[in-house]
Amino acid sequence: MVWWAATGWLVLGGDAETSDAGLRMVRAVYWAITTMATVGYGDIVPKTVPQMFYACTIMITGVASFGYILSNIATLMLRLDAARQHQEEVRDRVEFFMQYHEVPPALRQRVRAYFKYLWSNKGGYDDVEVFDSLPRGLRADLAMYLHRDLLAKV
């Protein structure tokens, strides 16, 4: 994207005072990066009306790209936080259950280890819980699909 912005800047005559083509391209890439990442530093400025419109377009594109990336990161962090919150809720329910039923400490450790394993290896979900939450007919269809290789051999 930076390369296209730099090329457009050159097409519009940006940095025409330099005759060295390599230096013009490096300066155009510099202009594109500073314009997309910020509002530019002011050392390479648009001089004509088309250059000004182009610079505004590149600034808006840079802000929109930055906003898009930032929103995706925020959404990812929110999802991770929701998963962690679900894990904590499950852990609290299990702890309450074990305390209520006065489960011995050794067995409590085994139960905690199981839930720790479940979270680290399966992302905190249990296949049986998902399967059991389905209606009987859908469960049967899903079981047939999951065991199709075995059924094909029979």
**Tell me about the biggest sheet?**
none
Distance between the termini: 57 Å
Overall outline: elongated
Total helical segments: 7
Taken in chain order, the helices and strands follow as: HHHHHHH
Q: Outline the low-pLDDT stretches.
A: none
Mean pLDDT across the residues is 82
Strand content: under 5%
Q: Can you give the helix content as a percent range?
A: over 70%
> Which value, in Å, is the CA radius of gyration?
30 Å
Q: Got a strand count?
A: 0
* Strand-pairing-aware structural class: mainly alpha
List keywords for this structure.
mainly alpha, 0% strand
Describe the structure.
With 154 residues, this protein is an all-alpha fold. 78% of the residues lie in helices and 0% in strands. It is built from seven helices and no strands. The protein has helices at residues 2-11, 21-37, 49-100, 105-122, 127-132, 136-146, 148-153. The longest helix has 52 residues, at 49-100. The protein is elongated, with a radius of gyration of 30 Å. The mean pLDDT is 82.
In terms of topology, how is this protein built?
Blueprint: H1 2-11, H2 21-37, H3 49-100, H4 105-122, H5 127-132, H6 136-146, H7 148-153
Helix pairs in contact: 1-2, 2-3, 3-4
In short:
Helix 1 (about 1-10) packs across helix 2 and helix 3 packs antiparallel against helix 4. The chain has helices at about 1-10, 20-35, 50-100, 105-120, 125-130, 135-145, 150-154. With about 150 residues, the protein is mainly alpha-helical.
